[in-house]
Amino acid sequence: MSLQKTLEQFLGSCARCAIARERPFIIGVAGSVGKSSTKTAIGVALGAGEEGSSVIATKKNYNNELGVPLTIFDCDAPGRSVFAWAGLLSRAWLMRVGIVPLPARMYVLEMGTDHPGDLSYLTSIAPPNISVLTAIGPEHTEFFGSVEAVAGEEVAILRALKADGVAVTNADDAIIRQLMTSLTVQNYSFGMAEDATSRIVESRLVIDEAFPQASGLEIRLSLIGTTKIIRLTGMVGRPQAYAVAAALAVVSAVDGDESRALERLEHGFYGMAGRTRLIEGIKRTWLIDDSYNSSPLAALSALHDLATFPIQDGCHRIAALGDMLELGSLAESSHQEVGRAVALNKIDLLVACGAFASIVAEAAIAAGMPQDRVFTFPESRAAGLFIQDRMKKGDVVLIKGSQGSRMERISKELMAHPEKAEELLVRHTREWIEKE
Fold first, then answer.
1. Do the beta carbons of residue 339 and residue 361 sit within 8 Å?
2. How far apart are CA 382 and CA 79, in angstroms?
3. Both ends of the chain: CA-CA distance in Å?
4. What are the tens digits of pLDDT across the range 81-118?
5. pTM for the full model?
6. What is the Cβ-side half-sphere exposure of residue 171, based on CA atoms within 13 angstroms?
7. 250 with 295, same domain?
8. Among 88, 104, 99, residue whose Cα is nearest residue 26
9. What per-residue confidence (pLDDT) applies to 144?
């Protein structure tokens, strides 16, 4: 066993003991897409980060064997610092034996999975009182083999609930609805379905040309029969609407103050870098920066958001799409599906990057997209320069791809205020920028 794995297991054991003794309220968030935005929205709605708050939500991407204990202990990743590791291990042991109490009474924990058994392990550390399941679709199928296997893994967060636990699930996801038929726990749901507890009635993008910073997503929700309206600046897309709806369902499940939650979301939820963020582009254009990661479900949703983005006559919708990774045997068919969706959504220009670029391009052309509007590039830098030359005032560019595609480089190339790159974009630390 490697030293890294040994340290992770020690930290997990310490977190498990501390939680078993102090019994904080645990909200676990899992799913194929939307976990980070949903976790963030829930945390904001419940007051995480506010002065005097007893709520802690996962920060960054701390959603694995190391990240979950780090969140529980409220620590940053120690990196390669021996002293930071010594401090973390000491803090973990002190909390394990009860000398130092846990820093929160409620945790909102994002729980990710790359391999079978990951969620069962994470829920054994922090058994959830509320389990939130965002969606199920192709993800990491290189390791799972099929969507059915992914579903079998993701349902672990629901099966970890005790009899008095609460499930908060996506009412629009057919796989999740089927899974819920075999469970007896109380269920609060969110989505566009008529029977959703927290129902998205309408979501639309509002563009303010005079004051671009005020542009964003307006969402009308029905929460247990009461209509709520919220405006989220600096973001676009159905994933953000779902994140807000899920957060309000959780607030209802814990008998929280829904009006206060809405106020917190409207003034404190700005989405996360690289997740359908609305950014001003050069030449008075707009960017939908969705460059953090990509999967088939997320790519199709992003293309829908691009297709419905309001533009004036003569302006264009441009899709810059990178590879979707870790799909295994589903990689080719998934990229073909995305290529077809580009054509069916009547996107004006396709710029595909990476090893699967030709597959996306060929599928788009076969589905009716004119060949002279389809372009491929081996990597993102060249694609960014190409788009910069082609784009004109009023155009909108969707930028999406898995981490390995480094699509955030295109966002940096096209943003109107590159001095804000570190604030607005993913992977813009010195360490990432220097990576090839």
1. yes
2. 32
3. 30
4. 999 999 999 999 999 999 999 999 999 999 998 888 99
5. 0.91
6. 18
7. no
8. 104
9. 53
Instruction: Using the predicted structure, report yes or no on whether residue 195 has a pLDDT greater than 90.
Output: yes
Alpha-carbon torsion (271, 239, 42, 130), positive or negative:
negative
Are 176 and 301 in a shared domain? no
Query: 243: how many CB neighbours lie within 10 A of its CB?
Result: 33
Helix H or strand E segment including 26: strand 25-30
| d(C-alpha 167, C-alpha 54), whole Å | 22
Tell me how many degrees the CA angle 295-234-215 measures, rounded to the nearest 5.
125
Last residue of a domain, one of 246, 268, 290: 268
What does the pLDDT look like over 112-151, one tens digit per residue?
988 889 999 999 999 999 999 999 876 544 555 677 777 8
- CA dist 115 and 6 (Å) reads 18
Residue 313 has pLDDT above 90, yes or no: yes
pLDDT value at residue 128:
98
Alpha-carbon distances, residue 196 vs 68, 131, 173, 191, 224 (angstroms): 30, 16, 11, 6, 9
Is the sign of the CA dihedral 257, 258, 259, 264 positive or negative?
Answer: positive
Per-residue confidence (pLDDT) for residue 55, from 0 to 100: 98
Vertex 277 angle, CA 346 and 377, to 5°: 55
What's the token pair of residue 174?
């057919």
- pLDDT-above-70 percentage for the chain: 97
Last residue of some domain: 241, 268, 295? Answer: 268
Q: Which domain holds residue 334?
A: 277-433
Can you say whether the dihedral through the CA atoms of 403, 407, 413, 416 is positive or negative? Answer: negative
CA 147 to chain CA centroid, Å, is 19
Token representation of residue 114: 């790359």
Query: 254 and 198 in one domain?
Result: yes
pLDDT of residue 145: 61
Q: How far apart are CA 223 and CA 248, in angstroms?
A: 8
Asked if residue 34 has pLDDT above 80, the reply is yes
Calculated CA dihedral for residues 30, 32, 33, 35, nearest 10 degrees: 10
- Rounded to 10 degrees, the C-alpha dihedral 292/50/29/246 comes to -90
CB 197 within 8 A of CB 188: yes
User: What's the pLDDT tens digit per position in 395-414?
Assistant: 999 999 999 999 999 999 99
pLDDT by residue (tens digit) across 225-266?
889 999 999 999 899 999 999 999 999 999 999 999 999 999
Question: How many domains does the structure of the chain reveal?
Answer: 2
